[in-house]
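lol ok so funny story. i was supposed to be doing the assay writeup but got distracted and ended up predicting the structure for this chain instead. priorities right. anyway since i did it might as well share w the group, maybe its usefull for someone
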Amino acid sequence: MGPAPRRSGPTWSQFLRAQAHGVLACDFFTVETVFLRTLYVLFFIELGTRRVHLAGVTANPDSAWVTQQARNLSWDVVDDEACFRFLIRDRDSKYTASFDEVFRSDGAQVICTPIRAPRANAFAERWVRTVRAECLDWSLILGHRHLERVLGVYVEHYNRERPHRGLHLGTPIDPQSQAGRECRRGPVERRDLLGGLIHEYSRAAA
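and the output, tada:
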């Protein structure tokens, strides 16, 4: 018996690289509060820019809630004049038909990842690992509002200040930011966030 025929067409990773600026991915992760209450966090990430959109936090991610978060994101994306051709999500039952329909009505194709294949949504999985390692693993979350505040601060830091190797050390909202900073002169100032858990550095005006 000869070797198995090679599958024609691009691989999944090749598809993502080729279509990155038109792909949006989403995922849920859970956070346990100090009172042992489970909260669910829904977020979206733009594959081309690595920009994260924090959709919301809830203890009950039912159909009405996830659909409303999809609508909220759709409105925000229209305001930013962004255009996405694909939405990648897993097969979690929390994603309902009405959730998918929000994106289909905007002209995006919803692509479900294979069962038990977290690498198929690697960008979203990597961000979950990052937010846990840099923020949540060092924080005691009291409740819903506290988690929203903490994640809001972290996402703003991640999008505007945290350099990414995949963006040549630029940031998701301003990929050219690092090059601009290297040209500036002056004393370095530090700003502490989340009680000193995160530090941001910038050069003071000369």
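Residues 1-6 have pLDDT under 50 and may be disordered. The beta strands are 23-32, 38-46, 52-58, 86-89, 109-112, 188-193, 198-203.
back to the writeup now i swear
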